[in-house]
Amino acid sequence: MNKFDFNDILIKPAKQSNIQSRKDINPFHNGFLPLITAPMDSVIDIPSELKYRNLKILTTLPRGETGAIGFESYSLIEIEKLFKNKELSSNGHYLIDIANGHMTSLLSLTKELKLAYPKIILMVGNVANPETYYLLSNAGADYVRVGIGNGGACSTTLHTGIGFPMGSLICECYELSATLKNPAKIVADGGMQNYSDIIKALALGADYVMVGNLFNKAIDSCGDNYLWKFFKVSNKIANLAYKYKIPIYKKFRGMSTKEVQRKWGNTTIKTSEGVIRFRKAEYYLQQWVENFEDYLRSAMSYSNCKTLEEFIGNVEIIKISENSYQRFKK
Prior knowledge:
Blueprint (H helix, E strand, L loop, with lengths): L8 E3 L23 E3 L8 H9 L17 E3 L1 H9 L8 E5 L6 H13 L4 E7 L2 H10 L3 E4 L9 H5 L5 H12 L7 E5 L5 H10 L3 E4 L1 H4 L8 E3 L3 E3 L1 H9 L4 E6 L4 H6 L12 E5 L4 H18 L5 H4 L5 E3 L2 H7 L2
Parallel strand pairs: 2-8, 3-4, 4-5, 5-6, 6-7, 7-8
Antiparallel strand pairs: 1-13, 9-10, 9-11, 11-12
Helix pairs in contact: 4-6
């Protein structure tokens, strides 16, 4: 059976919509938009976390950053050590941040952590197999990151051939979640190129979408600033240049790059499945978030959905041809 991705589908409007105004729509989960920051040091750090929270975005900090308001990120080895030494908070929010979430050791640790700390909030992944989502959900994970090789700073699929088209992956995980008593939240992670990709991910069944590249391209993101991709400049100079329409580029790097491995003090540098890119700054973070909220409200209005619970996984999806996609791609 052929799998599909975001460019292969559209959301079909409801036959009739009873929604008179987008103001009648609630696009929030408990006061937050269905967005989570990617745990990347060119997207978020401790000083910028509050900015995201004030914009109603859930946060995950990169490994090595502690004192988070939202999720703190640890490798499998790091969180095993914290668990063994009894250094985990009984009601903490933790992300086990590993590339291969299909490992048996992650499944076992998830069960152990949730048994020892029932109130801990645990996000795990990444996975690219719906059945692995099912297993981790049954093990007690609260959130599961789905998607491998799709991210703008990830080259896993390109080099290894491992992956699963994101549209089908979300859809099939959502179908499995409906069979579970306490399903983990589905976090679609990687490769979101525009607003509609995020909205389609939600329509297919994702509870949240993890965003990196699109946040990095905000002039006020924590990514390093460069003039003409060569000269690193301060935030003050970058903001001044941006104000006068002088191109500023933000450094965007995958967290498995050799550069990050050296930052973490790794003595053995492994072949990287991450890349470093320079993205032209295109907007302020608040502008992007306001636009996203408006577009999401609009999509929900067309779909006759007043809440995210009505919208997520419950709208009609239609598959389209490449010619159909090119017709509206502008």
